TrEMBL record:
It is an enzyme of class 2 (transferase). The keyword Lipid biosynthesis applies. It comes from Cereibacter sphaeroides (strain ATCC 17023 / DSM 158 / JCM 6121 / CCUG 31486 / LMG 2827 / NBRC 12203 / NCIMB 8253 / ATH 2.4.1.) (Rhodobacter sphaeroides). The gene is cdsA. This is Phosphatidate cytidylyltransferase. It is a multi-pass membrane protein. One of its GO terms (cellular component) is plasma membrane. Its EC number is 2.7.7.41. InterPro entries: PC_trans. It holds the Pfam family CTP_transf_1. It is found in: Cell membrane. GO terms for biological process: CDP-diacylglycerol biosynthetic process. Keywords: Cell membrane, Lipid biosynthesis, Lipid metabolism, Membrane, Nucleotidyltransferase, Phospholipid biosynthesis, Phospholipid metabolism, Transferase, Transmembrane, Transmembrane helix.
Length: 273
């Protein structure tokens, strides 16, 4: 314990992380179960916040325009989802680039990175809502549990075991021990859903692949933060930094599901509403 009364050391942030995680998981569980408009509104709001955080990191001196980028992202995503549900897919896909493109109108560092990553965030937001509508609550639950389990097991294994760094130049805190523990945790989640939810056994292999995509999503965001000279994307979530810090891995996981889904049928759990 430090003189200020705050815990220090490698587990110093654990309490705040656990409290914030419990609140986020509770809200997320309710929204996933409800589906439909409530879930879509949650995703729309989170996507707007992530675009705002990305805008802040690449142009921190332009506060008001950055807020407008986030608001525009939410508004556009809401419209995109209405296009998707009316099966106007080409119009929906074209609209996803509007918010990142609007963010390029003023001065901004790393313009290509902002546009590319911003578009990825928009696609992931739309994809997550579509996955909930088409795959049901169990498919979303599987995806979230893969990401959360990979993150939690990676956190504890990395802090406890340490060892060689996974990619020290980009994400100096990630270790191979934590990365592999995350894959093993994801495989266990896949096994559980294969047995309990009637998914194909291929889910045991798919789950670590999606976990890897989530870990890469985390690494990409860490790389952007290092380029921007910031520790966290914002301070909105105690113990976790910003919304982008918390949902970067889910963004990578959703994008991987979308890409792999275009290549062939995935053994996803399909029961549930």
């Amino acid at each position: 314990m430090s003189k200020s009364g705050k815990p220090k050391g490698r587990w110093g942030d654990l309490r705040r992380r656990m409290i914030s995680a419990a609140i986020m998981l509770s809200v997320g569980a309710i929204e996933v179960w409800l589906g439909g408009v409530p879930f879509a509104l949650l995703v729309i709001g989170l996507t707007g916040l992530m675009l705002w955080e990305l805008a802040r990191m690449t142009a921190p001196q332009r506060t008001l325009p950055n807020i407008l980028v986030g608001l525009l992202a939410s508004a556009i995503l809401m419209g995109v989802l209405s296009f998707v549900f009316r099966e106007e897919m080409m119009l929906a896909l074209a609209a996803l680039v509007l918010a990142p493109a609007a963010g390029l109108l003023g001065p901004r560092r790393d313009r290509r990175i902002f546009f590319t990553y911003g578009t990825a965030l928009m696609v992931a937001g739309a994809g997550l809502v579509m996955l909930r509508e088409e795959g049901g609550s169990v498919a979303i639950l599987w995806l979230i549990l893969v990401v959360v389990t990979s993150d939690v097991m990676g956190y504890f294994a990395g802090r406890s075991l340490g060892g060689p760094k996974f990619w020290p130049a980009v994400s100096p805190n990630k270790t191979w021990s934590g990365t592999i523990a995350g894959w093993l945790g994801a495989a266990i989640v896949g096994l559980g859903f294969s047995i309990a939810a009637g998914a194909g056994w291929g889910l045991i292999i798919l789950s670590p692949v999606i976990a890897l995509a989530g870990q890469l999503g985390d690494i990409v965001e860490s790389w952007i933060k290092r380029r921007s000279g910031v520790k966290d994307s914002s301070s909105l979530i105690p113990g976790h930094g910003g919304v982008l810090d918390r949902f970067d891995a889910l963004t990578g996981a959703v994008l991987a599901v979308l890409v792999l889904g275009m290549l062939g049928d995935l053994p996803l759990p399909a029961m549930g509403n």
